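Progress report, Aim 2. The chain analyzed during this reporting quarter is listed below.
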Amino acid sequence: MATICFNPLSKSDSPPLFNMKFKGYVFFDYVGTTPISWANIPLTDTNISAEDKEVFDAWKSNTTNSNSQGIQSPVIPGLPRPPSRKDITSSNSNRISAGRYSPLSSMMTRTSNSFPQANVQTYTANQVTVDRLPIAIALTETIMSKFRGSEHESQVSGELMMSFPADTANHTSLPELSFKIAGRSPAQVKVNSELVQTNGDVHTFNSSSLLTYLKTRQAKEPTSKHFNIDVARYTLNVTCLPLIPAVYWKCEPDTTDLRLEYEYVGSALSKPLPLTQLQFLVPVNGGVSSVQSMPEGVWSAPHEKILWRFAELKSGASSKGTLKARFNLAAGPSTPSSVAIQFMCDGTIQSGTEFELTNTNYRVSLTKKRMVAKFSVDTDKLVTYV
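Predicted structure tokens for the chain:
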């Protein structure tokens, strides 16, 4: 049941203000601004005085007659300027002394089951939107670099993956999902053509194909909580790398000396974070009989390789390092080989590429970024060092 608090018409030309409460929400409407079918709204006699009811009945009769004659009520401009603190205090006093609500006091009163009246908005059915569908994004970039001396050739290949909650497959239809690969412009972008079409720099899912794909995955993997989809791949040419290596060999008949220098360059990443799982793997032939290394590495005789591992490499004073090793040979000399370097970094990528939605049907609930690097380092000449 709705409760209507009616204030009698005053001598001014301003129309009366009605305060209608429905299920805890308060709406305000000037008489004549929005036609209201009062016949469908019962009154509570305890909330309206006899004098008010008489005026209300008279007004209701006039409104009914006017509507039956095709006469529309005049349109009144928007709400008046909110009252000052002094007016509110005075209004509250009048309300209490009169024993009933006044329009201004009801506007400013906050009840336990309603919002402050100043923030209340009225929505029509077609203005109400459901919560946007969540998706998760994973951007992974792999740096492949080939060094010879101080020169290198490098390329970044990136992968964009989307993850959809499993219950997305329960929908009867899906809204349009379109996006951009923003930031640095990739040299080439290749999308999953079975699900995505490209128009310029905007990529759009075929909603029907996407839903069919998710339903198929759900049938095959009924216990999965989410489904991952490879959406796009891109490539970039880069000149600045997060790690700069250099290798030096001294090969003699009985011994081989190796020195490997490296430096972390945090500015090469979109967000300078520590490199993790850093590994240096060096093959050494010539019949190695014993090894001395600093810092200590792990020598594998069956594979004829030495491995250095570091959990983390940060920027700052410790961003540089040197690896040294001496190999005693039984069948030397050794032949200089390629040094394999590998590392990764979670939370950032090389290029600064970003995923960007181009409509509001979905929301990104999680974004993960990872960079993986694989370097091959050769020396351009043999050097002698102490």
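The radius of gyration is 37 Å. The chain has a mean pLDDT of 76. These observations will guide the mutagenesis work planned for the next reporting period.
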